[in-house]
Amino acid sequence: MSRVVIFSASVGAGHDSAAAALAARLVGRGFAVDRHDFLTLMPAGRTVCESYRRIITHAPRLYQCIYSRTERAARPGLVQRRLLKAAEQAVLEAIPADAVAAVATYPLAAQVLGRLRASGRLGVPVVVAFTDFSVHPLWIARGVDLYLAPHAVTAGQAEGHGVGSGAGSGRVAVARPLVSGRFGDRSRSGRAAARAKFGLAGADKPLALLVGGSWGVGDIASTAFELAASGVVTPVVVCGRNEVLRARLRAAGMPYVFGWVGDMASLMAACDVMVQNAGASSTLEAFATGLPVATYRSLVGHGRTNAAVLDETDLALWIRTPDDLPGALLELTSGLLGRRQRKAGLAMIGDGAEPDELIVGLLREFGWVGNSIAALGSVPEVAV
After folding, report:
1. Rounded to 5°, angle at Cα 12 from 344 and 315
2. What is the DSSP pairing of strand 32-37 with strand 273-276?
3. 3-state SS class at 113
4. SS3 for 219?
5. Are the beta carbons of 270 and 194 closer than 8 angstroms?
6. If DSSP codes are grouped into helix, strand and coil, which group holds residue 76?
7. By the 8 A CB rule, do 228 and 301 touch?
8. What does the alpha-carbon distance between residue 256 and residue 235 come to, in Å, rounded to a whole number?
9. Is the separation of the CB atoms in 293 and 283 below 8 Å?
């Protein structure tokens, strides 16, 4: 049985959810799939993750400064390069002899796999699946064979960072977004059952699902109060693992507040619009469910760059001021804008080639037959 090895990271939930969705597709095609948390293979990986969480939560201006500086850099900084180099052997050892491809759904894993591939130490093709709509340079690494982008604008940004421009720079393809099959367009009966399941049946206004990722980061509390004050919607707040936020909102009398939700597919099916601040996996899940999406009080860094792409493509409305909130919510829940965005989101989920088909096509280019690579293609060795 041919084996694909996927390297993700438990930074929030988006990278892991993309890895799980891809693994399910590959297993359905008869592949064996190994999944690894890159942070367990990189020295001080969990410390790096916790530092990132603390910075984005408590020092957003610092995070924006770091993001902007690295956005302009041609390669990772010195400290990052040393950490990534120290992870190389562990990553290489995690790829068994029967593997036919290695996939990254996390940018630092992409850097290591690309370096191993470019230097000739890794003999199987490398694929990178973007989990953001915008492309930070850390996603791009010499030696990567194929990038999977959720949208043409994302693919264009990758090309702007040098993908497809020369030997060893790989190519990019637009692929259907990596969303679990549990998320699908809602029916009226399914919506009613979902509302009953979560105790939402008594709401007398459209329900606005408010999410801040698995960490519950951003100015979620202010957003929740503003949604309620709009008079247009009733907020349904998901705090993820942020128990402090959950307790605060419940103490303030917010009626529908949840912590970690295992069945987000049903909760999305119960709601009428989603308000988010980062523009990653939850947004794709909302599109698959047929929910119109708004970005509000976006996170700095990737939150703003994702918001810009979603707004540019008319996939999600970027609400920039509190004064704009009531009118925008009305349009999204009962106006033409909501219907148009619902249609666009569903179309995006169904557009593009299947990611597993693109990976199979790549393997065939490299001589994949049955369970093995018969005649490996090569990537020119480059300075790394």
Report:
1. 10
2. unpaired
3. helix
4. coil
5. yes
6. coil
7. no
8. 7
9. yes
- C-alpha distances out from residue 81 to 76, 86, 173, 244, Å: 6, 8, 27, 35
Quickly state the pLDDT bin for 371 (edges 50, 70, 90): low
> Residue 121 and residue 118: Cα distance in Å, rounded?
8
Q: Is-contact 291 274, C-beta < 8 A?
A: yes
CA count, 13 A, side-chain hemisphere, 177 = 29
What is d(CA 150, CA 75) in angstroms, rounded to the nearest whole number?
Answer: 23
Per-residue pLDDT reduced to its tens digit, 69-116 = 888 776 777 778 888 999 999 999 999 999 999 999 999 999 999 999
- Alpha-carbon gap, residue 197 to 357, rounded angstroms: 37
Half-sphere exposure of 151 (CA within 13 A, CB side): 24
Specify whether the CB–CB gap between 311 and 293 falls below 8 A. Answer: no
Nearest one of 121, 53, 51, 55 to 85, comparing CA atoms: 121
Separation of first and last alpha carbons in the chain = 33
Tokens standing for residue 245: 């936020």
pLDDT band at 149 (very low <50, low <70, confident <90, very high): very high
**311-320 residue pLDDT tens:** 999 999 999 9
Where do we find the tokens 């959950």? 246
Task: State residue 384's pLDDT score.
Answer: 40
DSSP 157-209: HHHHTTTTSSTT--EEEEB-----TT--PPPHHHHHHHHHHTT-TT--S-EEE
Query: Distances from the Cα of 34 to the Cαs of 30, 337, 368, in angstroms?
Result: 13, 42, 18
Residue (of 12, 15, 37) closest to 238 by Cα position: 12
CA gap 353, 309 in Å, rounded = 21
Contact 113, 141 (CB under 8 A): yes
